[in-house]
Design brief:
- Helices cover 28% and strands 32% of the residues.
- The protein is an alpha+beta fold and 139 residues long.
- The protein has a 3-stranded antiparallel beta sheet. A two-stranded antiparallel ribbon has the order 1-2.
- The protein is elongated.
């Protein structure tokens, strides 16, 4: 996942990957016996982690929480029309472990966040560290 920054006079735009492709080690087998291995996972929002905690299944069994979270952030899996908790429940354990690891990797901020900037005057490329504790507002 990379952060980049496009600059022009008076404007800056943050661009980053929000969706990530994956291929499951084993794959989900649907009711017709078709195997679905390729999918797409999006970055999680706060709601993706908070809303499932209200679900009675997660309240009765906290180990069920990852099932609900993954059902929210997996956008596509093969040709399945929808992804829900039932699909995630029926994954092989190797696939579940793979998806949980992927979820952690794409949602953690590894290292210091930086943007790649281009000086509008000389055209030089720079890696600019972001310090979210030192944000300033401009009027």
């Amino acid at each position: 996942m990379g952060w980049t920054k496009r600059t022009g006079w008076g404007e800056a735009e943050m661009i980053f990957n929000r969706e990530f492709e994956f291929t499951l080690p084993r794959g989900f087998i649907d009711s017709q016996g078709k195997v679905h291995r390729k999918g797409l996972m999006r970055l999680a929002t706060a709601a993706d982690e908070v809303v499932p905690m209200r679900d009675f299944r997660a309240q009765q069994n906290p180990a069920y929480l990852p099932v609900l979270v993954l059902a929210r952030v997996i956008v596509r899996l093969g040709e399945l029309p929808e992804i829900n908790a039932g699909v995630i429940e029926n994954l092989f354990t190797a696939d579940m472990a793979f998806l949980q690891d992927m979820y952690r990797r794409i949602n953690e901020m590894a290292g210091e966040p930086v943007v790649n900037g281009v000086c509008p005057q000389c055209g030089c490329h720079h890696r600019i560290p972001l310090d979210f504790n030192d944000l300033k507002t401009f009027s």
